[in-house]
Amino acid sequence: MSFVEYSELIQDGDIAIVYLGHESMMPIKVQHGAQTQTRYGAIRHSTDLIGRRYGSKITCSKGGWVHVLHPTPELWTVNLPHRTQILYTTDIATITMMLELKPGSIVCESGTGSGSLSHAILRTIAPTGHLHTVEFHQQRAEKATEEFREHRVDHLVTMRNQDVCKEGFGVTGIADAVFLDIPRPWEAVGHAKAALKKQAGRLCSFSPCIEQVQRTCEALTEQDFEEICTLEVLLRVHDVRAVTLPLPDFGSNHTSVICKITVPRREMAGHTGYLTFATKPRA
Ligand SMILES: C[S@@+](CC[C@H](N)C(=O)[O-])C[C@H]1O[C@@H](n2cnc3c(N)ncnc32)[C@H](O)[C@@H]1O
Q1: Under CATH, what is the fold of the domain 15-71?
Q2: Contact residues of ligand 1, CB 6 A cut-off
Q3: Ligand 1 atom 3: residue of nearest CA
Q4: In the chain, where the domains are located
Q5: What is the distance in A from the centroid of ligand 1 to the CA of 35?
Q6: Which residues contact residue 24 at a Cβ distance below 8 angstroms, ignoring those fewer than 6 apart?
Q7: Sheet of strand 226-231, all strands in order from the earlier edge strand to the far edge
Q8: Which protein residue's CA is at the shortest distance from atom 16 of ligand 1?
Q9: N or C: which end of the chain has fewer CB within 10 A?
């Protein structure tokens, strides 16, 4: 198992996602001899998991069942232990597209936080790209390093435990893209420019407040970045419903017809943050 490569069979040492139904899930570390308790009873790793196919339906000791899923960055985002606020898949999808990330991309990121975005970046840039991630909080940097190793993506990432606003990303002139999720991104814009390749590159900064966006845009303009634009991504879910509509009386036996319509939900996830994008001009 690796977060960047699919494996058919569950193996000792894997991280697997136990899906309990109704969007309830939990990550587990598969270990010979270990047991995991669920509301449907125990899962015995040696007999119920190791050697079975990912996606299998597993019967627990009380007779209820769960599905065991291969980990993905999307599943990790909704299951990871939070050390900080994290980025969710709706924003991550837009960041990946607008930064033009692809296999082989070199990316700089700060802060690492809980590693939600880092895992998505790693899956996109594998197998030949590299992520340089900077986190100034020592325990968070250590925990993320441990998770990258457990998830078998550590060969694709370099962690630096330093202040990105003072010391930068630790690399110069190599990045295709830079991502900032820190409280004072404007203080890191100069370092971001230095990390990006001479022949252009893309930058994204995530900030919850519009005042942070204003200061970041000013810094981007001072550093001659181009194509500066800010987006807010709001996800509007539509439910499908069947409704009965009356038919005019044309003399047939049918007085109504059943149609399917879509209705937006009354409540939707609100503001997470603003995404500011910019392009470094060609030197
Ligand atoms: C909101 S979290 C990032 C969450 C991350 N994007 C994710 O999806 O999990 C912000 C992180 O930036 C780190 N940070 C803040 N200022 C920093 C700086 N100047 N240099 C390095 N890291 C910094 C914080 O310690 C925190 O862990």
Answers
A1: Vcp-like ATPase; Chain A, domain 2 (3.10.330)
A2: 84-87, 110-111, 113-117, 134-137, 140, 163-165, 181-183
A3: 113
A4: 15-71, 75-234+270-282
A5: 35
A6: none
A7: 157-160, 130-134, 106-110, 177-180, 199-207, 274-282, 226-231
A8: 182
A9: C
**Which atom of ligand 1 is least distant from the CA of 163?**
20
pLDDT of residue 266: 87
Question: Could you give the CA distance from residue 78 to residue 61 in angstroms, rounded to a whole number?
Answer: 26
Identify whether 71 is preceded by a cis peptide bond (ω within 30 of 0): no
* Atom number, ligand 1, closest to the C-alpha of residue 165: 19
For Cα atoms 229, 197, 175, give the angle at the middle one, nearest 5 degrees: 80
163 CA to centre of ligand 1 in angstroms = 10
Q: How many residues appear in the chain?
A: 283
Best substitution site from 88, 89, 92, 112 to test ligand 1's pocket, by max atoms within 8 Å of Cβ?
112
From the alpha carbon of 80, which atom of ligand 1 is closest? 9
Taking the C-alpha atoms of residue 265 and residue 239, their distance in angstroms, rounded to an integer, is: 7
Residue 63 pLDDT? 93
| Strand bridging mode 130-134 / 157-160 | parallel
Alpha helical stretches, state H, the chain: 73-77, 89-98, 116-125, 138-150, 164-167, 189-195, 210-222
The tens digit of pLDDT for each residue in 115-160 reads 999 999 999 999 999 999 999 999 999 999 999 999 999 999 999 9
The CA 85 to ligand 1 mean position distance, Å, reads 9
Q: Which CATH architecture has domain 75-234+270-282?
A: 3-Layer(aba) Sandwich (3.40)
Could you report the per-residue pLDDT of 237-276, keeping only the tens digit for each?
999 999 998 888 777 777 888 999 999 988 887 889 999 9
